[in-house]
Write a structure and sequence with these properties.
It is built from 14 helices and 12 strands. It has 449 residues and is of the alpha/beta class. The chain has a single domain, classed as Alkaline Phosphatase, subunit A (3-Layer(aba) Sandwich), CATH 3.40.720.10. A hairpin with a 5-residue loop joins strand 2 and strand 3.
Length: 449
């Protein structure tokens, strides 16, 4: 029963029963301030609905005026590495004079990177914690020697014109942190399940958690609620990391460019599922135009892939009722200037192989942009969020229970939206060009194995 109906029913019952001392007011739920304080105190647990963790007047479920969510997660780029030349909306970016010491203690300064394909940068659990250094943010060079200065390189609007335009046009978060101070797979497990069950290194999800319970994910929740979803795959389905998910949901995995049922065909036809996960190429290598942006892949090839996805949504008949969220799984070892904050521990499972730390800190910042008619145009959110905030957003829309305490206490991005005054216009955005000379150099520097 909707909340408003419950309140009216209670009032009617009071009148009919002739209660001599009727309550002066009926509880309307928490205020926004109360809800935020309780989330920051990590009070909410696995199984909590969004309606239990947010202000009483929050629009949730079918009150949220959209029907489709499109999720695009790229790889391994920090916020300052990509977007430090933004200046709108009070965005927090690194100082152009920021430095990190080399092993001899010499200061190494940030610089504009001119190569679009560079060697990978250290971003393991241990390397990331040394980069953080209890808030010192000074370990990026020394964890990447030799050649550690590359961790301080950044790109600007001349390199990434489409990303800069989208960031300025729609709603941007400058406080989006990865869920784990570590590599890709633990972060993606948090994205899809609110926890990594103790994992701090890359690997697949277990069939059962350390307590012996069958692992749940956003996809098992969607299936149980009969909410449609599709995983649109280029070469590798990151969603298939969960035991049995692919084999039991084969029809939900579709090639992204399938001419009949792929993402671009479905967007054009207006037949997208309620939740669409769109995945770039993870395995093609530089020579094969890998498009996930993981080093050493060409950043402009990745930008072009994302632009194709965003432009397909903008041109779709479903644009008036769609939210697209574009983000990165982790920082990839590249410098960022904002120390990650504390976080709610998802469960009782401790880091496997590290008995000195817990999952009580977020990882580094990376870009997150919301593209939608309901996204606040030109807005920069300063609310601390992580990947489970996206999970919580999906849960809030489709009435799903929190998977863990992490997503239960996550802020679900709602300040980035205006559901009462949408802007259905399609903005003019620059082309996501691929510089042929830079791309040719990429293929010289990183030939096929």
């Amino acid at each position: 029963m909707p909340r408003g109906v419950r309140i009216l029913t209670l009032a009617a019952a009071v009148l009919l029963l002739g209660c001599p001392n009727p309550p002066a007011t009926v509880d309307a739920g928490m205020s926004a301030e109360q809800a935020k304080a309780r989330r920051e105190a990590c009070e909410f647990k696995a199984g909590a609905l969004a309606s239990e963790t947010l202000a009483g007047d929050t629009l949730l479920g079918e009150q949220m005026p959209f029907e489709h969510i499109v999720l695009v997660m790229q790889e391994n780029r920090s916020f300052d590495h990509y977007l430090s030349k933004l200046s709108h909306g009070g965005v927090t970016v690194a100082s152009p004079d920021a430095t990190n010491p080399d092993p001899a203690g010499n200061p190494i300064k940030r610089y504009h990177e001119t190569k679009y394909c560079i060697p990978d940068v250290a971003h393991s659990w241990n390397a990331s914690h040394r980069q953080f250094n209890d808030g010192g943010m000074d370990g990026f060079v020394i964890t990447n020697e030799p050649g550690g200065a590359r961790a301080l390189g950044y790109f600007d609007e001349t390199d990434l014109p489409y990303y800069y335009a989208v960031a300025r046009t729609f709603a941007l978060s400058d406080r989006h942190f990865s869920s784990v101070m570590g590599p890709t797979q633990p972060n993606r497990l948090y994205y899809w399940a609110g926890t990594s069950w103790g994992a701090i290194a890359n690997g697949i999800a277990p069939e059962k958690d350390p307590a012996g319970k069958t692992v749940q994910s956003l996809f098992t929740r969607l299936n149980a609620a009969k909410v449609s979803w599709r995983s649109y795959v280029t070469d590798v389905a990151s969603t298939a990391v969960f035991y049995g998910l692919l084999s039991t949901n084969l029809n939900n995995f579709v090639k992204v460019d399938d001419p009949d049922a792929g993402f671009f065909a479905s967007a054009a036809a207006g037949t997208l599922a309620s939740v669409s996960v769109v995945e770039a190429s993870y395995a093609a290598g530089v020579a094969g135009n890998q498009s996930d942006e993981h080093p050493a892949s060409n950043i402009q090839v990745g930008q072009a892939f994302t632009a194709k996805v965003v432009n397909a949504v903008l041109a779709s008949p479903l644009w008036p009722k769609t939210v697209l969220i574009f983000l990165y799984d982790e920082h990839g070892g590249f410098y960022d200037s904002v120390p990650p904050p504390k976080a709610c521990e998802p469960d009782a499972f401790l880091p496997v192989g590290d008995d000195t730390r817990r999952f009580d800190h977020l990882g580094f910042r990376s870009p997150l942009i919301v593209v939608s008619p309901f996204a606040r145009r030109g807005y920069v959110s300063h609310e601390p969020i992580d990947h489970t905030s996206v999970t919580r957003f999906v849960e809030a829309r489709f009435g799903l229970k929190a998977l863990t305490a992490r997503d239960a206490n996550a802020w679900p991005l709602l300040d980035m939206f205006d559901f009462t005054a949408p802007d259905f216009t399609v903005p003019s955005l620059p082309a996501a060009v691929i510089d042929p000379a830079k791309d040719a150099q990429c293929k010289i520097d990183f030939p096929p194995p």
